[in-house]
Each structure stands twice: as C-alpha cells, then as structure tokens.
Amino acid sequence: MIMEKNLKHIKIREPYKSVSPFLFGFYEKIKRKELGYSLDNVSKDLSISKGNLSEMENGLRIMKIEIFHRFLTRYNIEFAEDLKYLVEMREILIQIFEAFLRFNRKKQEKVREQFESMDRSWENTSGFLIGLLIEYFIRSVLDHKSQEDVFELLVSSESCLSNDEKALLYMIRGMEGRRNTTFKNKETFFEQALNYVDEKEMNDLEALIEYYQIMDEIRSGSTFEVYTKCSQVRNKFYNSHNYIRALYLDNLEAVSITYLRAYSSAYRRFETLLYNMEYVDDPYLRFCVVQNAILVLCVLKEYKKALEWMKKERNTFSYGLSNFVFAPYCFYMLDDLEEANNTIKKIKPYVKDQSDQLLLNIIKYAIENNENAFFEDSQRLLILDQKNKKQENIELTYRFMISFYKKNGIESRQIKLQEEYISFLTR
Predict the structure, then answer these.
(1) Alpha carbon distance 319, 287 (integer Å)
(2) Residues 312 and 290: beta-carbon distance below 8 Å
C-alpha cells in the first residue's frame, strides 16, 4: 500500500520536476482568472481554505504538487509546454524590471535579446499576456515608441495579470505620458499603479512608481510636498540597499529645490551628491547631476565656475550636450564674444534638441547684432521653454534677451521683457 502511494506521487511529480513550486500557485491564478472562476469556488473544489489558496497564488505559501495536480485534473487543463513559456516570460519580466530598477543598460539590452530570441513562440501559451507586457515595456520605455494598441489590449485583459503586473502596466503608461503631450490626466496612471502594487513579487516596485511620479510632479511645478516625498522614497531605497536609486532620489530632491528657487541650497546639494558619487560607477547619473549643477550656476550668474565644471566634466558629455550648450551662453555673458562664436561652431553640428538649437541660434544672432532674427528665435525658445516647464531655462532666456536689448539700447523691448520676467518670478 505504501509502495503504491509512493509510485502515485512519483507519477505526479514527473512532469513538474524542473518547476519551482512557488510557480504552481501563480500558474493556477492565471488559469483560474482565464476560466472566470472565483477564489472561493476553486478553493472549495480543491478542498483547501480560501485564505491558503490566496497565499499560494501570491507566493506567500508553496502550493503542494498534489494540490496543483488536483487543480489541473479538476478543470481539465493540459500542462504540456504551457507552463514552460509562462515561466520563461515571468523570468524575463523580472529580469527586465530588475535591470530597469538598477539602471543597468547592458542588462536591459541582454534581456531584450533574450526576449526577442524567443521569436514570439509564447503567443499561443498562457504566457501571452506577460509577453505583451514585456513587449510594451521594451517598446515604450526603452525604444520610446507609442504602443497604444498593446496598452488597450492589456487593459481589456488585465484581470489575467497579477497585481504587480498591473502596477507595472500603469507605471509604464504614466512614463509614456511624459513624452506624449496628448495624454490627459497622466498623473492618474501613477495613482492607479500605486493602488495595484503589493510588492509580493517585485521588491521596490512601489518606490519605483513613486520615483517616476515625483519626476512628473517636478515637471508640473515642485512644491514643498514633493521635496518631502523625495526624502521618503529615498529612504525606501536605502532600506532595501538600493543605493544607486537612492542617489537618483538625491538628485531629484535637489532639482525640486531649484523649482522652489532656492538655487544656492540646490547647488550645495549637487556638489555634495557629486562628492558622494566618487566611488559609484554610474556615468549617466553623474551627467545628470553635472547638467543640473551647471544650469544652477548659470542662474546664479557664476559663469566662470560653470565653465570650469564643463571643462572638468567634459567626458560626461557623451550622454548628451544639454549642459555644454551653455558654454557659449557663459562666454557671451562674460563678454568673450570670440570664444562664444568659436564654441558655437564646434558644437552646433552635434546638437539635436530643438531648444538647444534655438539657444545657439540666439547667441549667434546676438553676436552678429541681427535683431530681427534674434527676436524671432528668442520668442520661439521662450514659448518652447514654457511649454516644457523648464524653469531655469526660462530665467536664462529672459536674462539673455534683457541683456541683449540693454546692450543695443532698445529700451522699449527691454522694459517689456523686464516686466514679463518679474511677473514670471512672482508667479
């Protein structure tokens, strides 16, 4: 009798020997939702409590092989290769999330290769929706391409996704909204993501969503509440030993201070952050911090110091020219027109951003005393800066225009701009 019982267990175990038992509950949850059964109904059919089944589905309790087999038999579900693809999709999702969480771009590309090498073999399996979620993640976040149809399909089928997967979906949608100005009420996507997140499957997910929510709030105009939120989220990353993300929060916190116009305080924070980064290998974060520090120095009229930073941090510009375009601006404000013009010639072929191109244009027109061209492009730049809510850039553009009209004795435009500038500062 004992021998027969053992043989029965061996037969049951055979097909699942390479599968982690924690994935049985996850697989059961997906299939249960696909079939439209409630947690209560399935728990009764499997002769276990509703609470126990819920914990199994969320990875808090191992689902025994016998219970898993009973589920497959009761609902006539073929195991075959189905779970294999689901497991692979699940693993890739976790990998890409972890790579993204840690800002590991090499790993992001590796995971992309791993996903694409499957050549959509997951399409007719229970891993289909997770595959779509990964595809949406890659296209929207890594490639910056709109995936409206994929999002709509995922939303219509979201009952088949776990809570953390739903949270990821809405977080990605919120991030996509930063690039798509047609999105309405994009902040609600982050709120929806936070409502779903349960952290049972993906550590730091809640903090990651809050991180991007803060970025969105800063663009809309920082408040003291945003500054406070930065500290709270940063502590979450410190507590989970995610020090790179904590440093990114330090950067965001300093940026939020610039929006409160406490520029001297913000600059001191950027300086401290760069000092703390001496032993951190993250060139992109360094680029971001240097970019912010240079911009703040320009606002503080510390043009020589800004140029020193640019010279010292030249190697970080491989990530973009957004900070170096202020070199001609600094030279112009220091009355070194020749160096300003030479610098424009050197960097203009590499500048792609529209606002950066306009900034170089108006400096060039100012050097040439081309008042009409200067006026047209400076107005376009001001409108673009206001549209993108780049507060420091708006201040610098106003100052540059006022300086130009003052030098050329055009008092009417100088006075009008000064009034607009004061209105902007007191808004």
Answers:
(1) 7
(2) no
Position 278, amino acid: E
Question: Between the CA atoms of 237, 240, 242 and 246, what dihedral angle is there, to the nearest 10 degrees?
Answer: 20
The whole-angstrom separation of Cα 345 and Cα 364 is 10
Measured between alpha carbons, how far is 304 from 340 in angstroms, rounded to an integer? 13
Who contacts 330 (Cβ-Cβ below 8 Å, separation ≥6)? 298, 303, 304, 306, 307
| Amino acid sitting at position 181 | T
Q: ∠ CA 396-335-303 to the nearest 5 degrees?
A: 50
Phi/psi at 414 (5° precision): -60, -45
Whether residue 414 contacts residue 246, with contact meaning beta carbons closer than 8 Å, is answered with: no
Question: What pLDDT sits at residue 222?
Answer: 62
Burial level of 276, CB count in 10 A (0-12/13-18/19+)?
middle
**Residue 13 to residue 38: CA distance in whole angstroms:** 27
d(CA 334, CA 309): 16
Taking alpha carbons only, the member of 203, 211, 150, 207 closest to residue 175 is 211
Residue located via tokens 């709270």: 232
Q: Give residue-wise pLDDT tens across range 208-223.
A: 999 988 888 877 766 7
111: Cβ contacts below 8 Å, ≥ 6 apart: 92, 95, 96, 99
Question: Exposure string (b/e) for 11-29, b if CB count within 10 Å is 16 or more?
Answer: ebeeebeebeeebbbbbbb
Total residue length of the chain: 427
What residues contact residue 280 under an 8 Å CB cut-off, 6+ apart?
A: 243, 244, 247
DSSP 77-127: ---TTHHHHHHHHHHHHHHHHHHHHTT-HHHHHHHHHHHHTTTTTTTTSTT
Instruction: Say what the pTM is.
Output: 0.70
Q: Which residues of the chain have pLDDT under 70?
A: 1-23, 59, 79-83, 178-187, 199-201, 221-222, 316-323, 427
